[in-house]
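Example 4.3 (complexes with small molecules)
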Amino acid sequence: MKIAILGFGNVGKQFANLFSKAGHEIVLGLRSISNQELPYPLTTFKEAAEGADVVAIAIPFTACADVLPELAEVTKGKIVIDSTNPLNADWSPKLLGQENSAAEEISRLLPEASIVKAFNTIFADVMSEPVKNGQAITAFIAGDDDEAKQKVIALASDIGYAPIDTGRLYTARYLESMAHLNIQIAVGQGGGIDAAFIYLQNKGT
Ligand SMILES: NC(=O)c1ccc[n+]([C@@H]2O[C@H](COP(=O)([O-])OP(=O)(O)OC[C@H]3O[C@@H](n4cnc5c(N)ncnc54)[C@H](OP(=O)(O)O)[C@@H]3O)[C@@H](O)[C@H]2O)c1
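Answer. The structure with NAP bound is encoded below.
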């Protein structure tokens, strides 16, 4: 598959590396494409999304309202992976209301795309090593379009994570709260970012 990665920061770099190792073609969408020598082809957000089968968002949630509207047409019918977390500048939770989430906001910005929430609960620092001490990090995955969600589940599995389908897109509310908790433990409590969720299902039965 051709995967457009929007943003090439901590998460974008890990996505590019993991997806290309799994045999996918990568194109980067960036806000500034001048004077950069990167290991993947780079272009504008719009061109990257236009030429791709799957689009992965790896920019701050707070930038989405500016960046995504011009991608509404070119993402029509495509899978869009939302890895964002609603955060304030100090990494505290940006509260969007009880019946809302970044993923649902993004689905309103890209109404004809199939939004799949994934990878937002995994710190970029541990993304490169999906299996640690013999245990695969859990990739919690939510979405309304079952076919799109199954493709992202397969993608997560291909790159080494243990995917779990959490249900429809609204369950991104819970996944975003998990990311807030992850940040609170790592940063607020000084636990560090070398940490990840592993969901033990049906163990001990
Ligand atoms: N870091 C983590 O551990 C982690 C884990 C899971 C999910 N996430 C989520 O993943 C997303 C990316 O996080 P990150 O840590 O990779 O961030 P980052 O390292 O700061 O990179 C952000 C990327 O977004 C671009 N960007 C920033 N502001 C922008 C704007 N206003 N308009 C367009 N592009 C903009 C940056 O471009 P420039 O280089 O031009 O500034 C950069 O390519 C966030 O939504 C975050 O909540 C992060």
